[in-house]
Request: fold
Amino acid sequence: MKKSILSLAILIHVIFTTNSQTVIKRETLTQKGFNPVLNTPGDKLLFTASGFSGLNLVDLSTNQVTEISKEAGAGYEPQFSTDNAQIFYRKTTFENNRRFNAVLSFDIKTKRNSELLAPQRMLNKIYPLTNGVIAFSGKNILRATATKSTDAPIVVSANDELRIMLYNGKISYLNPLNMPEPRYIWVSLSPDSKKILFTAAGKGTYICDLNGKILSSLGSINAPVWFNNDYVVAMEDKDDGHRIISSKIVLISVVKKTKTNISTTDKIAMYPTASGKANRIAYHAENGEIEVVEVEF
Reply:
């Protein structure tokens, strides 16, 4: 009887993974934290404390943890360099009750920190270049590179007015949904730099081209990130008007719109990050547990 039950369980698992075209392996890290960020190879992960205080790096192959910063705001949208040898993050200071953000770099090999951009007002998301960073600051583009750069990157961001800003040699503004009062958040560029992923507050999550033409509607999901050019990872959550009461992480096909549940139903899983190269997805639970999931297509 036990053998039959085991065989049935294996059969059900095979049928499930065949239908969903995925096999999921799950690991909970011993370190607790929030807002994880995977690097491109998927072997290292950044995490912060509640409220984006401090920044730490964990090597997923050795479980070794390195403290990068204790500064307030250091854990807000840090970035790995394109060669994954450095980490770019911000340092927040206040002067006359006005907030300023500097951009710092951390060399993973030497463990040294250095300032790349002096404190700025209205500093938006940091984007890694081959030898430094580029960032929006209000209506300006700021670059900080170790050597003279000929990079002509395409970058997108939501500014302080929640408008989509596109830099492709010059700054332009997009309003894909023709909203009278644009409220775009979680704006990001696809790995091939051809599509823009964004969420419009109260309307849902979409993908458009670089001219603002809508290519796909992904429904009511939040905190979306690119897994690769064909898939997006996001949180599908519900709230009671004050706090999130349920949330799961889903993997969504951009073309077919099919969804695969990544997190388990017993946890409130939030704010995913992804490495399509490693087929890895990470996210944090409400209690600060960080889970790393491997997905095989």
Residues 1-19 have pLDDT under 50 and may be disordered. Residues 192 and 229 are 7 Å apart (CA to CA). The helical segments are 2-20. The chain is about 5% helix and 55% strand.
